[in-house]
Structures are given as C-alpha cells and as structure tokens.
DNA sequence: GCTCTACACCTAGTTATGCTAGGTATGGAA
DNA sequence: TTCCATACCTAGCATAACTAGGTGTAGAGC
C-alpha cells in the first residue's frame, strides 16, 4: 500500500522534473506527473498548487498569467536557473536516498527491480 | 541534501528489515540500520524508539525485557508473523514507489543508479 | 434554458511522523 | 570521580501532503 507520507520530501523534485521539458500550468503538471509515473502519482490539486507556490517563493520557479484565445486564465510556471540547478541536486539526493533504502531493506532477491 | 522528510513513510520498512535476521534491541537496531545504509541513515533514538512502540502496538513486533549477565536491561524486539508479512508488503510498496519516482524524475542519463 | 462535467485555480485546517531536546540509569575507562 | 558509551524513554515541534471546501469558464446533453 502506497501511503501519502511516502511522497514527503520527494514531491518537489518530481514537480521540478515535470517542468524540465518546458513551461506548463498547474493542471497540466498534474497530468504530466500522472502519466510519467504510470498512474502511480495521481496527485490532488491541494497537493500540487501549494507545492508550486512554495517552489516559486523559494525562487526555483517563476510564473506568469496567460489567457489563451480559448479564454480560461492559466498560470504558467517555468524553471528558473536556480530551479534547474536544484533539480540536479534533488536527483542526486534521490539517487543516494533510494540506494540507501535499497540496501537497508536488504535482500530483495528478485523482488522488485532488475 | 538529504532531508528528514524523505524518510517519512519508509522508516517502518527499514526497521522491520533490520529485525529480519533475528531479534534485537533498540540500540542495536540503530547500529544495524546505520551500517546497512553505509552511514546514510544515522537515526536519532527519538526517531527509532517511538517507531518501535508504534510497530509493537500495531502487532508487527513483540518485545521482551532481558537482563544479560553484564547487567544492563534491554528490550529485545522480534518480528511477529504479521510483521514478517508486513515487511513483504512494504518491500513491494517501496519497489513500486521508487520505480515511479525514477520514471517521474525522468532522464537521469547515467546519473545515479546502474 | 438548465444541468453536468472537465478544466483551472485557490486556501484553511487536519494529520501523520520524523526529529529536537530533555530526562533516567548502568558500567567501564581515564 | 569524572566522563563516555550504552540503553531506554517522552513531550512537544516542525514539516508537508492531503481533505474539503470554495470560485469561475466552457462545452455537451437534455
């Protein structure tokens, strides 16, 4: 069973990674994350929007309101230079963390990963 | 940088795994985890003891006080049958979770793992 | 015209849990 | 007799994902 707590401390990296390919608005980011994780991370808006605000306030993202011809207002987020650097850091941190858990969990013996 | 939040939701599995090889007391469990994670998880007692109590209350661990000839009292924890089953579940959950993060983080391109 | 769904954003408050900081006590070494 | 490693405990803090509610637009179906 995947609990919400498992995501703690890892969401920022995932959001930043979703913006690496280019700017996007909140709703689209949620979709991207859902698809890239093969449906595993179907994040509620109440999770993603506050995260975006946090990341912008931290200077890792910048945002701009846009009104496409269709009519609906959207807030489009982009990675800042700091954000791109942070993404690299977070990826490294994830690598170290996941490897440590892998070894701490011990002999999986053909369990999960190749 | 590895933040404490990253561990949230994963600690239980790590503690259970540390007891898979056999019963042990709290202090030894901390040492085991430190060694198995190559020093990455140097957990404070205030993290591990409450976790042990939680797991015992949940029926995944059982404990017994022992007084070895040296003199100091120790509380030795063992995996219950439920705990062993739970460990299997947690390992599977970790596998699914970490794989989802791996893909969500996207092209690491020779970054962290083999 | 009216309802319903999908899109698109927001926030106050809850909850879970790892950690900080403090405490108790034994035994051996300096 | 002072200090450190061992060995246990707990109250309270901090963080962050989530719940549950809200606003408003656009298009489809009746």
TrEMBL record, chains A, B:
<dbReference type="InterPro" id="IPR005149">
    <property type="entry name" value="Tscrpt_reg_PadR_N"/>
</dbReference>
<protein>
    <submittedName>
        <fullName>PadR family transcriptional regulator</fullName>
    </submittedName>
</protein>
<dbReference type="InterPro" id="IPR052509">
    <property type="entry name" value="Metal_resp_DNA-bind_regulator"/>
</dbReference>
<dbReference type="Pfam" id="PF03551">
    <property type="entry name" value="PadR"/>
</dbReference>
<feature type="domain" description="Transcription regulator PadR N-terminal">
    <location>
        <begin position="15"/>
        <end position="88"/>
    </location>
</feature>
<dbReference type="InterPro" id="IPR036388">
    <property type="entry name" value="WH-like_DNA-bd_sf"/>
</dbReference>
<dbReference type="InterPro" id="IPR036390">
    <property type="entry name" value="WH_DNA-bd_sf"/>
</dbReference>
